[in-house]
């Protein structure tokens, strides 16, 4: 028999998800179809395994609900009734509507809205910046994630990549602070867990018993938003008990005397009253961190998400400089390795195209920008969403929906699915998925750049984000070279190949291996701050920050606006404890109505809101649930499995009660990502969260919210 030979080919992939792990993958393609996606076995962090979210990534590409053609709304806003149109019709409609808006209101009446649905340097959150900057649209400041942490980090230590996650094999003590690694950073967790099995102590500081906290040798449970007091008390203890590397402090830090004065009254007893963590435990933690020398601290983004988040992170950043942990491979801090990546953000974003004086609207304030609450001249008349699903992910989501219902608002969305945001679009443009486009994926969780090769044809009439913006640019007559390059050419253009981090790494290397570790030292020898060398103005760790004098700047790690935001209110030159806005102790009047703090971390089974539309993923994650302590449940006659209402003045959502000691009295936990169009009761966690910024970096206050809970 002469059956035609099967053609099976393997291609390099890089996971495009907003995840610190940036796994290196192999795509298996058979006769033009993607049949399998696996983690690269030889990659030191991926080690052959993907996570539950991506385990059937090949099938995800063929999901029957995927958008394959441009659509135009035919029913009322949000009714999810669309008709198929051609690309030419879609582009013509966008041209006509935007041209009309520009004529009547000016280009700033249009705003792009994107985040990290895709993390590639080509297809990621910046992909539309050159086009919209050229158009003169309102600039959207994107501070969903990491800007508070990054601002605090930069103020103290400058843009250093910090500790290599792989160097944790050399750590003698490990602290995971506000990070649920088992769910959110699985490929770092493997390394931590192996080190732990060798006998190295793992401490997890988390407001509830997360999957990671359950694996800790010691779980420390501060009340939500009180970590700043804990960190200041650690500093107090290190100083009072002389657990200090005096030589390191002398040579490589700035402002020790001022820090000492600031921390003087921050005793463990003072912190115990605020955090609920026993004073003796705080002393013990300080002593153990000092004694171990090579102490590693992994900070998660959750630390930035209460009003004092930035100040908390600055305090934590002081600790390894006080103890001298930076002298040791495996000692120091890990938060945002991205700072080492030599990417040409000026080429990627083209901030030079932004007309002088263009206004900026922050992405967390979308609701009030759309519903009329924010005074805007001109008002927003059009928004284009790509790589983002704010109806699920952004705070005060009821206001967003209210705004999106406006008949006069022209909404464009580029998407894979009709998400809860795209449901309100007038025009939807179908976007490609990972295997259907070229890209290079950065990482904010390790030091590898990862190549992603297009290996199958784009299905239907889908187009990559970069291609979508090429088409829009052509439609608007923008003919700069910026808009003429292929996706592959953009990759070449966006990396600074001459940077020392890229020594010996070329496009050929990527095509051969699929990934490359930046030349920033190896996991076995990287010790970047053994002798100071901090990229701050003083070259030292700045306990007393010189950047603070410049005012409240916002260090967005994906930086279109990075330099644009110096100025504003002055910032405390020293770290300290800043209480939460919404805590029973700090806001007793509000707590009378809404006595419980809510924490809304990531779901184990979803990636933000992605995959939460796939029935089998929801099945393994479980329907929206709410962890509640038996004391709080009994007081409300709530029993395991009851459907409960979680609400405050901003809105309400429903979830199934899980009555458990995993959370403290006074704290409920409900994970993020569910689509409100598919939940019981039609809400999701962000209906209750506040759109107020925290005190640094315009970060969201997602762990700084009070609610009440009752049986539904
Ligand atoms: N499975 C999965 N993985 C993901 C994602 C996902 O949606 N799902 N999202 C990705 C993204 S975008 C990000 S930014 C990362 C984030 O990953 P993480 O940094 O792990 O962030 P979160 O899951 O928001 O919160 C982590 C932990 O912080 C705790 N926490 C909340 N508030 C406080 C507090 O005030 N103090 C302390 N000490 N702890 C607190 C929460 O209880 C939670 O267990 O994960 C990425 N990975
Ligand atoms: N309450 C609460 N809210 C939170 C958080 C929290 O911990 N608690 N976490 C916050 C954090 S850390 C983050 S990072 C944000 C994330 O917020 P988002 O980035 O908005 O999150 P996603 O749900 O990943 O939405 C991305 C969308 O992009 C689409 N997409 C994916 N790839 C592509 C592509 O190639 N092209 C196009 N056009 N679209 C694509 C996906 O289908 C998805 O709908 O959420 C924040 N919101
Ligand atoms: S989502 Fe994260 S852990 Fe899962 S495959 Fe992608 S990079 Fe790896
Ligand atoms: Mo994030």
TrEMBL record:
SUPFAM superfamilies per UniProt: ADC-like, Formate dehydrogenase/DMSO reductase, domains 1-3
Keywords: Iron, Iron-sulfur, Metal-binding
SMART domains in the record: Molybdop_Fe4S4
Pfam family, one: Molydop_binding
The keyword Protein biosynthesis appears for this protein: no
Protein name as annotated: Molybdopterin oxidoreductase
TM ranges: none
Domain 4Fe-4S Mo/W bis-MGD-type: 8-65
Family per similarity comment: Belongs to the prokaryotic molybdopterin-containing oxidoreductase family.
Recorded superkingdom: Bacteria
Molecular functions (GO terms): iron-sulfur cluster binding; metal ion binding; molybdopterin cofactor binding; oxidoreductase activity
